[in-house]
Amino acid sequence: MNLPAAGVQFEILPITDDLGRYAAHLTAAAPLHRSLRAHLPTDYEAYMRRMFAEGAEMAVLLADGAVRSLAVYRSHHTTFHGFRFYVDDLVTDEAERGRGIGALMLAWCERRARERGCDTFDLESGVQRPRTHRFYFREGLTVFAFGFTKPLR
Question: CA-CA distance, 137 to 40, in Å (whole number)?
Answer without folding.
Answer: 28
